[in-house]
Amino acid sequence: MKHRTRRLSTLVAFGLTSTLAIAACGGGEGFDDEGSGDGAAATDGGGEPGSLVMLIASSGDAETDAVEEATAAWAEESGNEVEVRVASDMGQELAQGFAGGNPPDIFYLDAAQVAEQANAGNLYEYEAEENDDFFPALQEAFTYDGTQWCAPKDFSTLALQINTAKWEEAGLTDDDIPTTYEELATVAETLTEGDTTGLVISPGIDRAGAFVVGHGGWWLNEEGTEPTGASQEVLDGLSYVQDNMAEGHFAYAGDVDAGWGGEAFGTERAAMTIEGNWIRGAMSNDYPDVDYTVAELPEGPAGPGTLLFTQCWGIADASSNQEAAVELVNHLTTPEQQLEFAEAFGVMPSRQAATDDYTESFPDDEPFIAGGDYGRGPINAPGMGQVVADLNSQLEGIANANLQQVMESFDSNAQAVLEQ
Amino acid sequence: MKAGDPQRQQGAGWLFVTPAILVLGLFLILPIFMALWVSLSDWSGRGSPFTSETSFVGLDNYSALLAEPGLARQDLMISFRNTFYYVIGVVPLQTVLALSLAVLLNNKFLKGRTFFRTAFYFPSVVSSVAISLLFLFLFAGGGAINKVLAWFGVNGPNWFQDSRGLIHIIGDRVGLWSISDPPSWMTDPSVLGLSFWQWFAGPSVALSAIMMQVVWTTAGTFMLMFLASLQDLPTEVEEAAMVDGANKWQRFMNVTVPHLRPTILLVVTLGFIGTWQVFDQMYVMTQGGPAKTTLTPAYLSYQAAFTNFQWGQGAAIAFILFALIFVLTTLQRWLLRDKDAAAQAKAERRQRREARRRPPGGGAVAEQSQRKAQTT
């Protein structure tokens, strides 16, 4: 009896393991099948129909639907297949793709990441049709090591938002809209009253950097090979912010119980803020009762200066269908298609050919799109992520910071990275 | 051929454990060795780390993190500082809270026990991401917490934007120093890239908010462990203590707590490991900000790899964190060991040693017994 149960358990164990083994093999085979299928599609790429995977970081259903519709139209026309995937964490999903050797063929890529990805050899270098029609500043933003790596998708710039009610309350008129940094400081002072601060901005170089540009400075030299943080222009730009904060008519969003400039502006703790055109969505959704106007950022001592933020259509070096991917990008960056995207989810077209139509449909966005002519893209050098994060965290305490010391530490950190 | 043949038994044994070995090997052991290799290499995150493009760099990643002055070491030290304050805040609080809840709910005459058990355990069942998002709203500048504080005339901080350390704030309040102008005897000396002023900042206001959330969420799980252990406590012992005239507090301290000792050790150990590895909250709520005061080693490791593409450093941080947890947990187990049992074991060892060390005496005893045996 005892023996029999033992034999039984052995049999059961054997049965279980063999089932598992078979199941595992089955899974493996299925996997292989898929792999070879992809390979087959890859080899007959080129002009032949193939299948593409696109990874996007979507701002919401409107964007996802619009991109899906546009790619489906192209797929129909060209006989290709396009699968649009929405990333929940773009950086991580891209990194996983590159590490696994099967990245998405085409993906959104932020200008701040281009140098990093190009440096790692992850990007396929291409030029879309009529490349010169893209705003020069955008071409520049995606240029690393003398090469433009991808086609600008769309862009946004910073502009000045003014709370209309507060403006009129303070007795200011359209003529008082600031055009220089001195005037900005003056109106901010006038607008500061009680709970309201004149100008509230989000912390970090993505806002304060605009004043650095206005003073003619930048964090790195033109070639992106040497840090220039401790230069007089940069220090002047930052001291402008610091001085005005000390006097109390500039403040960071955190100081007025807000998470970012737009929130401070919506809750009317700020009479003015500096944000990009994304603030429109936030205002109409969360604070529909606040009336505001948008103006270009005032000019600094060294001329107009704003920051621009942009993404491009990156194509993977490991993609087996690059030709089709470029064709798809050409389709997605036509002025007509860009205007459709603008209608659907409020992005500004990266092509100058679309600018006139855009400002006609969205006259209020003129100050934003004007920034395309003189805006400056993000820091464009590999390995700078941690250095920039450190600078941002130090600038959170700008009110009490020793700017010379902060920028010297930025320079030495950046130097260490750029030398590598 | 018998079924009970030891040879065959061994075969069956292996057959039984094969699936477990395969699964563990594939999903646990192999990745650990892969990560170890990555931490010693300059892998760029492109393709497999085992190709010829990736080269061995020895301990470079570790030395950048631990030895060389620079951003990598500074950030790691900041993350250690933050997590240290986080651990010494969260572990005692969650243990005490869980124990108190368990003792309360173990009361047989409490009405609605089941309801309270479910209610207190509920936060542990809900996804930590969902809870984190909820807390973001609760602790927002104009959020519910600050509204409640305002009823009592307290002007609440803008929790998740506030990078001031609690020790800094307290020192500022009692007039020891001023936060906006820290004294030079605190800012000048620096250890491992951070000044004393930074080391002794205490948890920032933002980190404290996260700590409150974590205590609230995890107390339920640990309460369950305490409850299970409390049900094992025989009523007779408690009754005997009552007969002896022990009051409630004495019964708790001298009967309940000693009985719970192994569970307390378990809860504290799990708490230690869990808190050192904290990641979700930082990922969802603060991304290490404000001013890096919620940066933790686990989040830093993720950031190093996925946003800065320093894969080797990311893996190295993970191994440093492992070593740190290992050392600290061993230390903590040693500190919390059962001192009576340890003393007893030590005494026994000593006796045995002494018995061995005294061959002449021992020999005499042996001789005696031998002689006895002969005579009988």
Describe the structure.
The complex is a heterodimer of chains A (420) and B (376). Chain A has 2 domains: 51-156 and 309-376, 3-Layer(aba) Sandwich (D-Maltodextrin-Binding Protein, domain 2), CATH 3.40.190.10; 159-296 and 383-419, D-Maltodextrin-Binding Protein, domain 2 (3-Layer(aba) Sandwich). Chain A is 50% helix and 15% strand. Chain A contains 17 helices and 14 strands. Helix content of chain B is 71%, strand content 1%. Chain B has a domain at 86-165 and 202-285: MetI-like (MetI-like fold, Orthogonal Bundle), CATH 1.10.3720. Chain B starts with 5 loop residues before the first helix and ends with a helix. Chain B is globular. In chain B, α12 packs antiparallel against α15 (311-335). A two-stranded antiparallel ribbon of chain B has the order 1-2. At the A-B interface, α1, α3 and α16 of A face α1, α3 and α14 of B.
Task: Provide a brief overview of the structure.
Chain A is of the alpha/beta class and 420 residues long. Chain A has 17 helices and 14 strands. In chain A, strands 1, 2, 3, 6, 12, 13 and 14 form a seven-stranded mixed beta sheet that branches. Chain A has a five-stranded mixed beta sheet with strand order 9-8-10-7-11. A two-stranded antiparallel sheet of chain A has the order 4-5.
Instruction: State the end-to-end distance of chain B.
Output: 50 Å
Described by the principal axes of the CA atoms, the overall outline of chain B is: globular
Largest interface: A-B, 45 and 44 residues
* Rg of chain B (C-alpha, Å): 28 Å
**Major sheet attributes of chain A:** 7 strands, mixed
Average per-residue pLDDT of chain B, rounded, comes to 87
Supply the helix-strand structural class of chain B. Answer: mainly alpha
Structural class of chain A: alpha/beta
The percent of residues in helical segments of chain A reads 40-55%
Shape of chain A: globular
